[in-house]
Amino acid sequence: MIARLRGNVLEKGPEDAVIDVHGVGYRVNLSTVSLGKLPADGQPVDLRIRTVVREDAFELFGFLSPAEEELFQLLNTVSRVGPRMALGVMSGMEVGELIAALSRGEVSRLAKIHGVGKKTAERLVLELKEKVRNLHSEGIARGTTPRAPVTSGNKADLVSALLNLGYKQPQAEKAADVVIERLGPDATFQALFREALKSLRSSP
Q1: Regarding the domain delimited by 66-142, which CATH topology (the fold level of the hierarchy) does it fall under?
Q2: Which are the contacts of 107, defined by CB distance < 8 A and separation ≥ 6?
């Protein structure tokens, strides 16, 4: 099984990236949060990998930190939550922020993540509330306390993510302003990122 990839970013999409390792391109699924932090095309990157093998697929899921990988594994233990759903949950918030929301039982906040909904959010809290507390404590010990939510007053992360996908500064700034005004200050990073990509792709 592939456990780690160290190479150069070849190309990035809205849900995955291709990593060139000595001439071989590996397609790796990442959360939108991690995608926004990847270096520019052609730059080196080191990813932790979880390999998922099914009868009809062989998929790689990538992570930038041990905490992110551990959280992915925990999410996969929840009933009716598979690898792609787990990655979708992680696309809604920064890792520390998500761990804090789960440990505090913030169902309504988790339910706002795209594709989650109230029932899944309740199940996540029920099954993970106690389990994530160790991750939360370890994160604080390592100095990686939860970051503040992405809001309309903090569009820098969104602009940075769009720039990393190859868009120009004026395009990224304009798209960020449009979606933040449209979705409001309580929108998750995932929702803002998806809408910004739709806006940019529909532009002439």
Answers
A1: DNA polymerase; domain 1 (1.10.150)
A2: 118, 121, 122, 125
Strand partners, 50: 61
CA atoms of 48 and 83, how far apart (whole Å): 15
Please answer whether residues 149 and 109 qualify as being in contact, where contact means their C-beta atoms are separated by less than 8 angstroms.
Answer: no
CA angle 177, 42, 18 (to 5 degrees): 80
CATH of domain 155-202: 1.10.8.10
Classify the phi-psi angles of 19: left when phi > 0, otherwise alpha if psi is within -120 to 50, otherwise beta. Answer: beta
Secondary-structure class of domain 4-63 per CATH: mainly beta
pLDDT digits (tens, 9 = 90+) for 38-80: 988 899 999 999 998 877 778 999 999 888 999 999 999 999 8
What interhelical angle do 66-75 and 95-103 show, nearest 10?
40
pLDDT, tens digit (0-9, with 9 covering 90-100), for 159-184: 777 777 778 888 888 888 888 888 77
The answer to whether 157 and 150 have CB atoms below 8 angstroms apart is yes
CATH 1.10.8.10 domain range(s) in the chain: 155-202
- The CATH 2.40.50.140 portion of the chain extends over 4-63
CB neighbour class for 109 (10 Å; exposed up to 12, middle 13-18, buried from 19)? buried
